[in-house]
TrEMBL record, chains A, B:
Single GO BP term: xylan catabolic process
SMART domains: Glyco_10 (SM00633)
Presence of keyword rRNA processing: no
Catalytic activity: Endohydrolysis of (1->4)-beta-D-xylosidic linkages in xylans
SUPFAM superfamilies, per the entry: (Trans)glycosidases
Signal peptide (UniProt feature, chain positions): none
Name recorded for this polypeptide: Beta-xylanase
Residues of the GH10 domain: 54-358
First-tier enzyme category under EC: hydrolase
UniProt-recorded Gene Ontology molecular function terms: endo-1,4-beta-xylanase activity
Family: Belongs to the glycosyl hydrolase 10 (cellulase F) family.
Listed EC numbers: 3.2.1.8
Keywords, sorted A to Z: Carbohydrate metabolism, Glycosidase, Hydrolase, Polysaccharide degradation, Signal, Xylan degradation
C-alpha cells in the first residue's frame, strides 16, 4: 500500500448508486468503471496541431503529423500552443488568430486542455515594437493581451502570462521592445500590469508566471509578486535538462523551495534528451547549435529511466498539478535535440512506453464489480473523468474529492 | 569648473542680506562665511562612544578612546551605534538602554547624526529566542522594536530596520530565532512587518533596508518590497572590500543598478583595508581568522588612493546621501582587519588625511567678502550648516536648495 498512500492526494473514494429511469436501484449488475481522463495535466508542446487543424501542409507531411498526434493523444491530455508575438503577429495587425483558433478547437474536441504560451516575453517578440516609444509598446502589449485573451476565451483558459522575467530587464543579446518596457516598469511592476490585464479579459483563467531560473532570484521575485497582491494561480517552472537530469535531490530541493508559497506548481517546459549531453559550459542553451544530435539506444534507456523517476517524483508531490514535456517528438524539437518521446520517424522511444504505462496504467483506474442490493458499488480511483459501463449502456461521471456518493441513472 | 558642475547637486547658491536690529542693511562690511557641517553624511561605525560616554573603562583606555574620538570628530558627522539584539539585551528584560542613550546623547551634543544598527537580523540575535515558539519570537521582535524605537526617538531617528534579508531564511550556519520567523513570513513579508512596526513608533524616521548582497537578488527584493508598498526611505548597501577594492567600474555598475528605484542610497558599511587582501576563495568573510593582520606603509598608500576614488565617485552620484566606513580605527576593527583610517595607536593613516582634505577641504566652503550697498552678499557653497562671522558676531544658518535669499540679523 506504500504507493497508494503516497498518491492519496491524487485519489478519491466514491460510492455510486445506480438507479433506473424510475429511480429504483439497479442491483446485482456487473459493471465496469473506466477512467477516461486525468485531472492531473500531462502535457506537451505540440505545435504540429496548427498544421493539422488547418491542413496547410502537403499531404504526406500532414499524414506524418496526424500519426504523430495520434501517438500524442494516446497518452497526453494537455497541450501548449505557441503565442510568441513575433510569430503570431509578424506583421502588425495581421495576427494568426484563425489558425490558432482552429488548433485550439481541434485539441478541445479531443478533450485536451490547452495553454497559451506566452502573452509577454522579450524573446521572439514582435520586431515592429522597436519603432515605437515605450509608452506605445506598453499600449500595444496591453492591446495584444486584450485581443488574444478575449478571442481565445473558452478555448484557452490557461496562459503563461509572462515569461522569464528574472532576466527580462537585463537581457542584452539584442534590443527588443519588451526588455525596454520592463526596465521602465521593473520586474514586479511588469508582472503586475500583465497579470491585471489578462485577468481583466478572462477573470476565470488560470494564470501562470513562468521562468527557467530556479535560483533564489525567482523565489524572491515570486515573494515580491505575492506581497504586491498579484493574483498568480500557478508557479511555472521550466526544466530544460539538455545538460543532464537534475536528479532526485535537486528536483526535491526545487520542489521544496517553490512549494512554500502554497500555490500550485506547473512544470511547464521539461526536457530530458535521449542523446549526448550538452556541455555544461554552455550558459544560454540557444548557443548550442550542432548539425546533428542523434538519439541513441543507450541514451534512450537513460531517458526512459529519468522520465520515469522525474514524473513519479512530481506526481507524488501534492502541489504539482501539471507536467509539460516541451518537445513531444524529435521532429521539430527545440535546438534539434533528441528531446521527444518519439523519434523523427514517429516511432516511440522507451520513454514513451514507460510514461504511457504510468499515465494510462499505474496511475489510471479500471475496476469491475457488481452493484449490491441497494444498487451501490464503491471504488477508489485516480481523480479525473470516468465512464461507467453496464451492459450496452455508458454513463460519464467525474471523480473528485467532493461528494462521496453519487447517483447515476441508466 | 569641471568638478563644480559634477557636484552641482551638492551645492546651492545663496544671497544673504545682513541687517541690524532695526532692520537697516549692514553695508560694506567684511564678513566670513564658514561651513560648519555637511548635509551629506560622512559616517563611521564608532562603538567606542559607548565606553567614553559611560566612562566604564579604566582611565588609560578611556583617554585612548577619547583621543580616538577627537580624531573621528575632526572629520565625520555621522555615527552608527550597535543595537545587535544579542549584545543589547543578552539577558531578556535587561536591555542596555541607559548606556546606549548616553552614547547617542554624547554624539548628538557634538552634532553627529546617529543611526541604530540593526533592529532585526539573524546574526548576533538574542539567543533566548530559541526557547520560544515562532509566534512568541515575532511578538518579542515587535516588542523590541516598539521599546527601542520609542526609547531612542529624538536621539536616533535613522534605523537599519532589517539586515541581510536575502540570506536570512536560508542562513544555515546555526539555528536562530530570526531565520525561523523569516521562513514563516517570507523575505518581503518580514521586511513589511518590521518596517510597519518601526514606522508606527517613529513615523518621521529614516528607515533603511540593508544588505551585503549587491546581486540581482537584492534588486528583485527591493523591487518586490516597493511594489508591496513598503515605505523604504533609503537603500543600504554594504561594501566590505576585504578581498579587494571593487574599482570604479563595479562601483558605478552597482550605483546604476540600485539607483533606478529613485530612492536615496546609503553606503552603510564600507571597508577598504591597508593590509594584504583576504583570499578570494573565502565566501563568508567571518571565516577568515588570522592572529595578526598588519597595516603596512605600502598598503596604506593603496588604501588612501582607493578611499579617495571611492568617496569621490559616491559624492558625485546624486542619489548617494551617506557613506559609512565600518571601522574608524584598526583598534577593535571587524575581523581584526587594518580597516581603519587610523592605526591601533591612534596615528592617522594617509587615508585619514586624504579623506579629511576632501570632506573638510575640497568639499567644504569658506568664503570671505564684503556686503554691498544693500547689505547683500552672494555665495555658492556645499549644502550644510554655516556660520557667518562679522566682526565679533557670529550667526548660524543653513545652506539648502530652498530659498535663494535669506535675511540675517546681527
Amino acid at each position: 500500500m506504500g504507493q497508494k498512500n503516497e498518491l492519496a492526494h491524487r485519489m478519491a473514494g466514491k460510492t455510486i448508486k445506480l438507479v433506473d429511469a424510475l429511480g429504483d436501484p439497479v442491483t446485482g449488475k456487473e459493471i465496469a468503471i473506466k477512467q477516461t481522463n486525468h485531472k492531473f495535466l500531462f502535457g506537451c508542446g505540440i505545435f504540429d496541431v496548427i498544421d493539422v487543424a488547418n491542413k496547410n501542409v502537403p499531404a504526406e507531411r500532414l499524414a506524418f503529423q496526424e500519426e504523430k498526434l495520434d501517438k500524442f493523444l494516446e497518452v497526453f491530455n494537455a497541450a501548449t500552443l505557441p503565442f510568441y508575438w513575433g510569430m503570431f503577429e509578424p506583421e502588425k495587425g495581421k495576427p494568426r488568430t484563425k489558425e490558432l483558433k482552429a488548433a485550439a478547437q481541434w485539441l478541445k474536441e479531443r478533450n485536451v486542455a490547452v495553454k497559451g504560451h506566452p502573452l509577454c516575453w522579450h524573446t521572439i517578440t514582435a520586431p515592429w515594437l522597436l519603432d515605437m516609444s515605450n509608452e506605445e509598446i506598453l499600449r500595444a502589449q496591453f492591446a495584444r493581451i486584450e485581443r488574444d485573451v478575449t478571442d481565445f476565451k473558452g478555448l484557452i483558459d490557461t496562459w503563461d502570462v509572462i515569461n522569464e522575467v528574472v532576466i527580462m530587464p537585463i537581457f542584452d543579446k539584442y534590443d527588443n521592445g519588451i526588455t525596454r518596457i520592463s526596465k521602465d516598469l521593473g520586474r514586479v511592476g511588469i508582472i503586475k500590469e500583465m497579470f491585471a490585464k489578462t485577468r481583466e479579459f478572462n477573470p476565470g483563467a488560470t494564470l501562470l508566471l513562468n521562468d527557467f531560473n530556479t535560483s533564489i532570484n525567482y523565489e524572491i521575485l515570486i515573494d515580491g509578486c505575492l506581497n504586491a497582491g498579484i493574483p498568480i494561480d500557478a508557479i511555472g517552472i521550466q526544466s530544460h535538462q539538455h545538460q543532464g537530469y537534475w536528479g532526485r535531490e535537486k528536483l526535491e530541493e526545487v520542489l521544496d523551495r517553490f512549494s512554500h508559497y502554497g500555490l500550485p506548481i506547473h512544470f511547464t517546459e521539461n526536457t530530458l534528451t535521449s542523446g549526448h549531453l550538452m556541455p555544461v559550459e554552455i550558459e544560454d542553451l540557444n548557443d548550442y547549435q550542432i548539425p546533428e544530435w542523434p538519439s541513441t539506444p543507450e541514451f534512450e534507456e537513460r531517458q526512459a529511466k529519468e522520465v520515469e523517476e522525474m514524473y513519479s517524483i512530481l506526481f507524488k508531490h501534492p502541489q504539482v498539478e501539471a507536467i509539460t514535456t516541451w518537445s513531444f517528438s524529435d521532429d521539430g524539437a527545440w535546438l534539434g535535440a533528441p528531446a521527444g518521446f518519439i523519434r523523427k520517424d514517429n516511432s516511440p522511444k522507451p520513454s514513451y512506453e514507460v510514461l504511457k504505462k504510468l499515465i494510462k496504467g499505474d496511475w489510471y483506474t479500471n475496476v469491475t464489480g457488481k452493484t449490491d442490493d441497494n444498487g451501490k458499488i464503491s471504488f477508489e480511483g485516480f481523480l479525473g473523468d470516468y465512464e461507467l459501463v453496464c451492459g450496452d449502456k455508458k454513463i460519464s461521471f467525474h471523480l473528485d474529492k467532493e461528494a462521496e456518493i453519487v447517483q447515476l441513472v441508466i
